[in-house]
Structures are given as structure tokens and as C-alpha cells.
Design brief:
Blueprint (H helix, E strand, L loop, with lengths): L2 E4 L6 H5 L14 H14 L7 E3 L3 H10 L7 E3 L16 H10 L21 H5 L17 E4 H16 L8
């Protein structure tokens, strides 16, 4: 592999309402705007040869891929390891409540009620790691359904950075 394209799912119903959704069994579709964003993603990638599309188990990621790749014969796999953090007792509730809890606890703390820690979900910080930065307590959201090209060297560096971070997790301080 020489290059990968990373894209966040398009806008979903839970994201517009500010609610958490870390359980892929809970169906949360894209909004009308999200469906349009996914189609635009397809337009942006129309002239790009894609060998594989990888999504999480979430409806929003698969619907984004369906719309972006409509009419194309691109093999797909679903990787549960790409799923969002399990929010535990915060599942389905206001994201601001989870964020308040997360700010008050270290990255190794598991969300109460069967949730997981931020350390356990560190692989979702690939874009920061590609720039050789440690994960931050609050991550800036990337735009919905926009491709980010990452070459194999950046991916290898990101994985190495994240592996090292899991041994001694501390948050990077953003200015």
C-alpha cells in the first residue's frame, strides 16, 4: 500500500443533536445533509482508484461508504476495531456530559457502566499521530466526509507513535 484515504463519516442524527453513540447496535442514520456530504465525498474520490473500503460497524460509516462509492466495485470490510469509544453510562446522552467526565479523569480511566478508556481507543488518533503529536484530551473534529491522503510512511510513523503512547499515556497540551 502506498497511500490511504481517511474520511470521517458524514453528519449523523446523533451528532446534530449532540448525543453520544458508541454502540453500533443502535441505528443512527445520516441526516439529509449527511447524505449529501457522502455524495460529495464520492465526487471527490471519483477519479481515485480505490482497492478497499474499510468502515466501522456503525450505520453512519457504512451509509457514508454506500453513498460515496455508489456505482463502484470497491471491496469492503468492516473492522470492529474502528468503532467509536464505548461510552458506558453516557451512551445516548449528551456528549457534553461525557466530555465533562473525561476532562475530570485520566486517559486510562474507563467510562463507568461498561465503557472503555481513551487509551483503549487511541488508534482513532491517527491524524494527530501522523504529525508526531501525542493524543490530546480534546481532539478537534475533522470535517464530515472529507478525504485525507496519508502515505505508508505516515501510517507507520502513526502506529509507532500510538504504540509508544499506550505505554505512558499523557495528553498533549494544545495552545
Amino acid at each position: 500500500m502506498e497511500q490511504a484515504f481517511l474520511a470521517r463519516h458524514a453528519e449523523s442524527e446523533s451528532s446534530t443533536r449532540g448525543l453520544t453513540n458508541g454502540d453500533p447496535r443502535t441505528a443512527v442514520p445520516l441526516t439529509a445533509e449527511g447524505r449529501e456530504q457522502a455524495r460529495r465525498l464520492g465526487d471527490l474520490l471519483a477519479d481515485t482508484e480505490l482497492d478497499l473500503c474499510v468502515t466501522s460497524e456503525f450505520e453512519r460509516t457504512q451509509e457514508t461508504a454506500d453513498l460515496a462509492l455508489a456505482g463502484r466495485d470497491v471491496p469492503r470490510i468492516v473492522l470492529p476495531g474502528l468503532n467509536d469509544i464505548r461510552f458506558g453510562q453516557f451512551e445516548g446522552g449528551p456528549l457534553r456530559e461525557y466530555r465533562a467526565w473525561a476532562r475530570a479523569h485520566g486517559p486510562s480511566a474507563e467510562a463507568p457502566g461498561g465503557g472503555e478508556s481513551r487509551v483503549e481507543t487511541v488508534r482513532r488518533y491517527v491524524l494527530d499521530a501522523c504529525d508526531s503529536r501525542a493524543p490530546a484530551a480534546a481532539v478537534e473534529q475533522v470535517p464530515y466526509a472529507e478525504p485525507f491522503a496519508v502515505d505508508s510512511t505516515q501510517l507507520e510513523r502513526a502506529v509507532d507513535r500510538l504504540d509508544a503512547w499506550t505505554l505512558a499515556p499523557t495528553w498533549h497540551r494544545r495552545n
